[in-house]
């Protein structure tokens, strides 16, 4: 029943949106749980091995190599670009700004329509990027920049002593088993088409080597490989990236949809909130092709589509597929099991007070602590132990701040929590005069 409902939704999208061929897949717990294909590629239907153009999904793979370089100590995200590329134009932009599209750099290169014409070498691109290509003050706002990822690709290539493609292939694709992902198409692949808006006819779209702009959208891939990428984004990193670094890439930095605040960007990853879901991934668009991949790590699920059309999809396909999955086969919660607890930590749990406001301190699996208001409406954070006996805040208001634990009080970055409201026996800054009518 589930597979039929998913296939029908895919079939409706392909037929009503007039897509030459359309594939989609759902990944659950790191494995492909469902795949569907409609339309024709050559003489038959598309398969999980059929290549489509990834477009800007390429950017996320380049971003992973940048984060690997950071984790190795080869760069810092707050480094200026010219610290590593002395000849780069706009070298004052930081690497983090380029990754998050907050540098203010122009969206498209000052060339002919780069997606439909042969690319130019990086030296030529550098010469064309004059002062007028900076459209906004760095850090002021989200402004999507294909050019920014061209600069990041050159950064990756130089620091690795090769090309950006060499680095992505060797450090990301090969370890993840994504052998069907290539910089140029290989058989079997779909041809990119534009579909006429008022007639059922198609126009083949051109395909070229983007050269310097390649890191912004060069790659081709298959539904099989993109499903592995969805699993990666969901947390099955295969040793390619530290899980904590992937979580850092998912942290929101810029908002992409103004007052709606439902779409944004992290470090090389697009972010979206839809129907209570927190999705991370990337969309891709090149002449003749559309693709998108999302992962929801909290639910262990990923979803993707690949199509050979320039435009015309509804924009609801992937969230509809997730809705169908939730309706017919909702995820079962993990079984609860008791765990061993440190007696000293167990003694800390229970009721604490920030002044008169009650908070609950809970022991989490893996020796973590959770401190949150009993009735909501306040600052909640999780904490993990440090080697010096302190605790580090992971999220919320106290992310990165230090918690110090004593038997009679908690000191959270100068805020003192006590077992009783303003306990006179604890060292409350400002003193405690006592309660009175």
TrEMBL record:
The keyword Hydrolase applies. One of its GO terms (molecular function) is serine-type D-Ala-D-Ala carboxypeptidase activity. Its EC number is 3.4.16.4. Keywords: Carboxypeptidase, Hydrolase, Protease. It holds the Pfam family DUF7586. InterPro entries: AmpC-like, Beta-lactam-related, Beta-lactam/transpept-like, DUF7586. Signal peptide: none annotated. Residues 342-419 form the DUF7586 domain. Residues 14-314 form the Beta-lactamase-related domain. PANTHER family: D-ALANYL-D-ALANINE CARBOXYPEPTIDASE, D-ALANYL-D-ALANINE-CARBOXYPEPTIDASE/ENDOPEPTIDASE AMPH. This is D-alanyl-D-alanine carboxypeptidase. It comes from Nonomuraea coxensis DSM 45129.
